[in-house]
From TrEMBL:
<feature type="domain" description="Cytochrome c-552/4">
    <location>
        <begin position="46"/>
        <end position="127"/>
    </location>
</feature>
<feature type="transmembrane region" description="Helical">
    <location>
        <begin position="453"/>
        <end position="470"/>
    </location>
</feature>
<keyword id="KW-0472">Membrane</keyword>
<dbReference type="InterPro" id="IPR036280">
    <property type="entry name" value="Multihaem_cyt_sf"/>
</dbReference>
<dbReference type="InterPro" id="IPR023155">
    <property type="entry name" value="Cyt_c-552/4"/>
</dbReference>
<keyword id="KW-1133">Transmembrane helix</keyword>
<protein>
    <submittedName>
        <fullName>Cytochrome c family protein</fullName>
    </submittedName>
</protein>
<feature type="region of interest" description="Disordered">
    <location>
        <begin position="433"/>
        <end position="452"/>
    </location>
</feature>
<keyword id="KW-0812">Transmembrane</keyword>
<dbReference type="Pfam" id="PF13435">
    <property type="entry name" value="Cytochrome_C554"/>
</dbReference>
Length: 473
């Protein structure tokens, strides 16, 4: 009975999304579960024969691993158990779309899935999307066959027919999956598309593809090349890395380069300003303000399943002897965040009003502390200058990010996995003794810093994912 209610909810929520978004609904309904066979789709091995560069971009990304992602597999198992399987098709529609339209999901354990269905958001699936019934909860229509759709209006293929579809040039293509609404109660879980839609980026006609399918990190940068072997050279070919901010999963599959692109994207998403007094006397109350501006992301930061994302500010004040005078936002030995002023994420609540990180149980939003596009959040920190402080004092403020809490990943995947923490941005200042002459006081230039490579993380993750896979088998 619960499953029937959820499916009715899916229909009603889809209608509400379409009505509220103002999106024109096409005449063709979304493709339903079991409408096709997995044999109707082509393996990526055929695609890579002509599209080798594009294939190399896609391999190892989160789209490539949308189904194989071990965090997703554990979460969808839990969601299935908690809802008696009612959300199996709902979750899988974006993570293994071929598995859904071919009727291989459910069962959620993947026991009836073909190899091609396990390839996640795969080449032939994306390019046989022929229509969309709006945004949110994957309202795609697919038409498997000899015709492949894409963003080029003059493409000619020898192996298959090529057709231009304007949808491939619009954010609405991405918004089919990157806008998620709880099918039972209508609570928005992932608002990546809608926060873009409400931003200055949408007003300026800057679409998702301009940042996520180019050589630029936070704006458009042309990527000259050929869409296929033998095809004409073009001023721009869409890059299929389509990297977001996930630094946890790609290294598990040996794709350290994907994680490093995610780091670069994170490090160009914000700008920071720090206000601190130039001098302070013993016993003075010192106040420090740090402002964080979402200057480079066309959606809220963090985004996606933002109830588990963690973005926070670490602020440390040390004296000339290296003694810590003040600290907020450091990690303890177990990877827990200590005394951070704010955790920039979305806080969901269950039916009892208690915080939950299981979005399928969420019924309301307790807090939304994310930073919207072009907006600024400011934190204020204060401390009293101690008598034994050795001048000058250094104020170091670092904006940090990780894909999920350490304890959550350990509970799901085992304690062999260490969640990478990325330094998104950092800024510093110096506080002097008031007796220090003004011409001897200097302040550091503010600048973003790069994050060390993934060598240490990679080895641990490879071991961890191997043990995890063996455990699941």
């Amino acid at each position: 009975m619960r499953g029937i209610v959820v499916k009715l909810g899916l229909v009603l929520v889809a209608l509400l999304i379409l009505l509220s978004s103002g999106t024109v609904v096409t005449a063709t309904p979304p493709t339903q579960a079991g409408e096709y066979s997995s044999d109707d789709f082509a393996y990526e091995s055929k695609c890579r024969q002509c599209h080798a560069i594009i294939y190399a971009d896609w391999e190892g990304t989160m789209h490539f691993n949308a189904y194989l992602d071990p965090f997703y597999l554990e979460e969808v198992d839990a969601a299935s158990e908690d809802t008696d399987g009612a959300l199996d098709e709902f979750c899988s529609r974006c993570h293994t779309p071929i598995g859904v339209v071919s009727g291989e999901i459910p069962p959620i354990d993947g026991s009836e899935m073909s190899d091609i269905a396990k390839l996640g958001v795969q080449c032939d699936f994306c390019h046989v999307v022929s229509e969309s019934n709006g945004t949110g909860n994957a309202p795609f229509t697919v038409t498997p066959g000899d015709t492949k759709w894409g963003p080029l209006d003059d493409a000619r293929g020898n192996y298959h027919e090529s057709e231009y579809l304007e949808l491939f040039t619009q954010s609405e293509y991405c918004g089919m999956c990157h806008q998620v609404v709880n099918p039972v109660n209508g609570l928005v879980i992932d608002d990546t598309y809608s926060t873009w839609k409400d931003s200055q980026y949408a007003e300026d006609d800057v679409v998702c593809q301009d940042c996520h399918m180019t050589e630029g990190i936070t704006d458009f940068e042309a990527n000259p090349g050929r869409a296929a072997s033998g095809a004409p050279k073009r001023d721009h070919i869409s890059s299929h890395d389509i990297v977001g901010a996930n630094t946890l999963i790609p290294p598990m599959f040996g794709a350290e380069s994907v994680a490093e692109m995610a780091i670069e994207r994170l490090q160009k998403a914000t700008t920071m300003e720090l206000s601190a007094p130039e001098t302070a006397s013993i016993g003075d109350e010192v106040t420090i303000d740090v402002s964080i501006t979402n200057s480079g992301a066309g959606h809220n930061i963090p985004t996606g399943v933002s109830e588990i994302r963690e973005m926070w500010l670490e602020l440390t004040v040390t004296d000339a002897n290296g003694d810590i005078i003040y600290n907020a936002g450091s990690l303890d030995a177990n990877g827990n965040i200590i005394d951070a002023k704010m955790l920039y994420n979305n806080v969901l609540a269950d039916s009892e009003g208690e915080e939950t990180k299981s979005f399928w149980l969420a019924e309301s939003v307790l807090e939304d502390n994310r930073i919207a596009p072009k907006e600024t959040a400011t934190e204020q920190h204060s401390f009293v200058m101690p008598e034994n402080a050795a001048y000058p004092l250094t104020v170091q403020s670092t904006l940090k990010y990780r894909s999920a809490p350490q304890d959550m990943i350990e509970s799901l995947l085992g304690d062999e996995i260490e969640v990478p923490v990325v330094d998104m941005n950092e800024i510093s200042a110096i506080i002097y003794d008031p007796s220090t002459p003004a011409d001897e006081r200097t302040q550091p230039e503010s600048d973003s810093t790069s994050t060390p490579g993934f060598g240490a993380f990679a080895a641990a993750m490879v071991l961890g994912i191997t043990m995890y896979i063996l455990k699941r088998k």
